Each structure stands twice: as structure tokens, then as C-alpha cells.
Amino acid sequence: TETTTVLCNIRSMPSIRCSRKPSTDSYTSVDSSNSSPKKRPMWQTILIIVGIVIFVLAFLIFLAIWVAVPIAFMQSISFQKFIIFINIDAPKDPDYNNPQKYGMESVVNFHITTQDLDNTTLVSIGSWMIVHEDEMDSFSSSTQSSDTASEIVTNTKKPVIIYMHGVACNRVKPLATYKVLRKFFLVIAPDHRGYGDSGLDADLSEDGIVSDTVQLYKWVRYKTSNMIYFWGHSLGSALATHAVKILKEQDGIIPTGLVLESPFTTMRDEMINHPLGKIYKWLAYFNQTILDPPERNGMLFLSTTNILYVDCPIMIMHAEDDNVIPYFLGKTLAEIAKSQRDLQTQGNVTYHQFPAVGYQHIGITDDPNVPQHITEFMQECVEADKGRG
């Protein structure tokens, strides 16, 4: 049949073998055991390591400055005293017995002995006595002794001023101020205990320095009936003010006048406004670790309170560009002394504010107007002294 014939023909056709080329799109199996991850470029690795190191160092610095230092300050009285008093020698290796080395003529280096607060221990206080320029011709620089100093203060016809220096300083440093003051006074410039060669074994404290200063004043008063003034610079302003208060409370003694150069109100206020204090004042534990510990240990320097007991005229001077104690603290102290004292019976308050011309913290006495300010202040003090009669 026809159908059978077709099937036979198909079967009789030669077989066709189909072959398939590999497709370029086919998947190729990957042996994962022979593959390796793509390596990070070297510069990326170095960058990551450097970043980690910087972070760790920054964290450690943060811990050291804003955690370790406040805690150490809170726990260590010695640390507190060093930061408050900064009793380092400036200049270094001073030659107290050779004032000519520093361009100072007619100066006597001497020591007086005071009783410590325990009334048994003795403290040696090193001082310079700078002769008034009108009496320099009668002075022999060959003699440097306490006897010479005693003789000079006994025989001088000039008023005496006790100069109290600030921190990071010994009695050699304020040379420019001495040269101004000696035009008006016989100058006595002691080093506070713990500074220079004074009381190196004595306990460094506000009360201790004030006690030494009171005894120095009495030593001068015993030698002369001339007028005696105080001049305090920076920390010395707080010490001088405190000493004047103690003289009045203990013995009813009133100095002729008190000059405060670049003063502050209280140590607490000074620490808050000092450049170093500003680094820490944002801390939540600033009061507990920085401000409170010195107060607990007697480092108060409460000039805002002590000045209320001063019964002599006061002159305060401050520079607007003071980079250590902001001038508004000196201005505030002057305002307190004016408003909270009886000016008629306790003495007037004069405030001089110097423009920002480069005097900063230690250069006020370079101002050409200072001699006139001193002259006018001395006249005011003489009149007030007559009134006390």
C-alpha cells in the first residue's frame, strides 16, 4: 500500500547524526577550591591602620587631659599647690647677692626669720631692700647683710613699700617695677615661703605666707615710724590684701596705703577665667575636681571679703589686655571695695584701667602715667593718715 511504501522509504534513508556545538552562552562550572578573594589595595590597608592609631591616641589624650588630670588634681594637695602657686624660679639660678648683675645698684640682699603657724618652727625669708634713688649715694654695696638692711630702714627718710610678687617669679624678676617704685619709696621685696630661697622646708600655704608678711611688716614698723605701704601684683595682690586684714584684726595696725596691680576677686573666680581653667570648665565634674579641692585645703584668696577690712586708701590698676587675669576681675574688686566699704572712714578707692597696648599681665608699670598715679595716690594716703590722727 501507499502507507507501507512511505515507511519503508523512511527506514531506508541513511541515518542522520546530529551534533551540537558548545554554546558560548553555556555555564562553566567553577571549582571553588581553586579560587581566592580579591585583595584590598595596600593604600587602603595603611589608611585603616593609621585611622585606628589616630583614634586610639586621641582617646588616650582625652582620657589623660580631661579625666586623669582632674582626678589627680582632686586627689593631690601637692599638685593643687603647684598649680595655684607655681613656685618655680624665674629667672633660673638667681644670684641674689649680686644685684649689680641685673643692673640694680644700691640693693641689699638680706633674710629675716619668722615664726611658722605652729609658733615653734622658724622660717627664713629672703628679701631685697632697694634703696630710694635719692639715698643711693650714701649706700655702700660692699655690705650685704641683715644688719645693713636694718640700718638702712632705720635711717631712711623715705616712706617704705613692701612689694608682694606673683607666681612663677622670684625677687629678681620684677626689675622694671622696682625702678619705678624706688623713685618714691624704700622698697622691700620678699620672696614668699616656697619661692626663691625663702622657707624651702616650710609648708606652702596662703595662711603661712600671710603670717610671714605680717611679721615682716612688724619688723619694718619696729625699725621706723615712716609711712609703710603695700604693693601686690597678681597673686601677691591677694596676699597683701589678706595681710592688711590680719594686721587690723590682730593688732589694730593700719598701713598707709594698698596698691593692687592686676588683681583678682577670689581664687575660684580666677581659676574659672584663667586660660588653663577654660579648658576644663565645660566638664560636668569641673567643680568637684578642680574648683572645690583647693578651697577645702585652705587656698581661698578671698580678696572680695578681705578688702572690706582694709581701712586705708586703695589703688587698683589693671590692663585690658591682661592675658592671665581678665581685667574685669580687677574692676569688680574695685567696685566691691567702693560700694561695700565706708569710703569716708576706711579710705577711698581709685581704679585705673589701661588700654590694650601690650602691657598684658606684667607691664603696667611701663606706662608713663603710673608715676603720676603713684604721686596722687600718696598724697591721698597722707591726707587720710592725717584724718586718722
List keywords for this structure.
43% helix, AB_hydrolase_fold, eight-stranded mixed sheet, Monoacylglycerol lipase ABHD12, alpha/beta, phosphatidylcholine lysophospholipase activity, 389 residues, transmembrane helix, disordered N terminus, 2 domains, single chain, Rossmann fold, 14 helices
- Count of strand segments: 8
- What topology, given as strand order, has the largest sheet? 1-2-4-3-5-6-7-8
What structural category do the secondary elements indicate? alpha/beta
What is the C-level CATH assignment of the largest domain? Answer: Alpha Beta
Strand content: 5-15%
Ends apart, CA distance between termini: 165 Å
Helix content: 40-55%
The SSE order reads HHHEEHEHEHEHEHHHHEHHEH
Low-confidence stretches: 1-13, 15-20, 22-30
Keywords: Membrane, Transmembrane, Transmembrane helix
Transmembrane segments: 46-73
Domain Serine aminopeptidase S33: 158-286
Biased composition (Low complexity): 24-36
